[in-house]
Amino acid sequence: MTASFVIAPPPQAAIAVQGETSKFPVRRVWCVGRNYLEHIRELGNDERNPPFFFAKHADMIVPDGSEIPYPTLTKDMQHEVELVVALKSGGLNISPEKALDHVWGYGVSVDLTRRDLQTISRKKEQPWEIGKSFDMSAPSGALVPASKVGHPSKGKIWLSVNGTERQKGDLSEMIWNIAEIISKLSLQVELGAGDVILTGTPAGVAALQPGDKVECGVDGIGTLKFEITAPK
Description:
Blueprint: E1 14-16, E2 23-25, E3 29-33, H1 37-42, E4 52-56, E5 61-63, E6 66-69, E7 77-78, E8 81-87, H2 96-99, E9 103-110, E10 113-114, H3 115-123, H4 129-132, E11 138-140, E12 144-145, H5 146-149, E13 156-161, E14 164-170, H6 178-188, E15 196-198, E16 213-218, E17 222-229
Parallel strand pairs: 3-15, 5-11, 6-17
Antiparallel strand pairs: 1-2, 3-4, 7-10, 8-9, 8-15, 9-12, 13-14, 13-16, 16-17
């Protein structure tokens, strides 16, 4: 029996797949905080604390080539380039040894952050949503299947603005690796097919302004481009 709704259901959030017309349907978006040591240091946080998880809404994903209006309420929106892990299955209490069996593929995304609002929330010990979860805050490049690229444990991750490199790191510098991230997150919530995980950002985060052209990527995985435009 086909379900009926009192209003039209929203479109399915999705990420493109390299070389395919079919897309990857997104169920949930999870992000890892503080997973590169140099980024922890540049923000002045305690590097002894383990990474933690927060979420963005799936419909905040926008595709490669997007024009993203500068968001409301902030004077300090910053870029954070991240490796994306896309899951084909999930569960609770997944062991690190079995975690990679649940991965469909990989990509690159930017966790756009209203840093001033995030900082205020942190000082007040309030949730981070106002700083992290806003419209078009998760531009994402096309995914590539793990069957083609394997499971990356090293490789340059980088971001440039207007042709000048700002962020540069290596996947080998992650405090928690991909399998450990999946395993730890599955203790907090039951993971499922369509979940995507942004795995943290290296050092070099900085503010964006209207007119900025952003290009980023993970070597061997893919690239992403977008432009910041004037506020709505």
